[in-house]
């Protein structure tokens, strides 16, 4: 009897140690992830004029939800250690709804890219604000069902299956977007069949899709992974020391297997977030680059074909463009034909004569036209 008691005490102590280790691991990881998300959110806000407003809103809301969730999770963990039970009840009522909000926001983000892919030729002028009704209606209802517990066990089953369904729908939309972009690229790549504007807008759509959909795809994988382990093995990120003491090595093996795989995915997650932040910071660097003077008498200083530039109009709007043709004539000192996603953003000699000089940015430098 004494021997069994000692073994049980050692098991409880071992499980308590593992729980403490995992607590510090979650604390450290949360700090890193929170920093990534807020940096990404700030970069997206600064560069909001370089993207379609609906993309900024849909993708920004998704990033914001992922920034707030680990923030409240971290607050919950700290208050738990301080044994502030009453305050923690309030924190939990905010924390868990944010998790459920992520699902419709995820689907809404992929719907935005689908709309941009289907209507790529005129999407820059579209303002599909009606689509915001999807998260506006679904999120409150979904959150109420998730935390209301009015259906008992049925609520948990509903949430699990809805997350599966939401992630599945997101995967389907992602596949359609990818296949459509490949098809459009092949079609528009045929010489003489389409204008420069259509090809440029498709390129912009693909670039924006690469920014957002890689993040959404990895997010779906992690969500499905969590649901699978929780549904099959009843394992989640929270270490249960009581279950550890009851089940021993079996539970520990499952828990560490779960954490190792999840930590690997978290590293990939951090890599994707870093790539997104670097991309947005590069845009930031280009936007505030110091201008480089271009003399029209010196052809070596002219921008070259296919250089990407950022044009800042008189109204303050910033438009990312790509130079597709530059030509000069005896009657005009400078005249460039730009493939523009906005008709009123076309640069011509007349525009330059009315508002000289015009500043723009090429990759990391910029130029100012001197007449």
Automatic annotation (TrEMBL):
**From what superkingdom does this record's organism come?**
Eukaryota
Where is this chain primarily localised?
membrane
Q: Which UniProt keywords apply?
A: Membrane, Transmembrane, Transmembrane helix
Query: Which InterPro entries does this entry report, sorted A to Z?
Result: 7TM_GPCR_serpentine_rcpt_Sre, Serpentine_rcpt_epsilon
GO biological process per UniProt: sensory perception of chemical stimulus
Q: Name one Pfam family in it.
A: Sre
Where does this protein reside within or beyond the cell? Membrane
Q: Which family does it belong to?
A: Belongs to the nematode receptor-like protein sre family.
The name on file for this protein is Uncharacterized protein
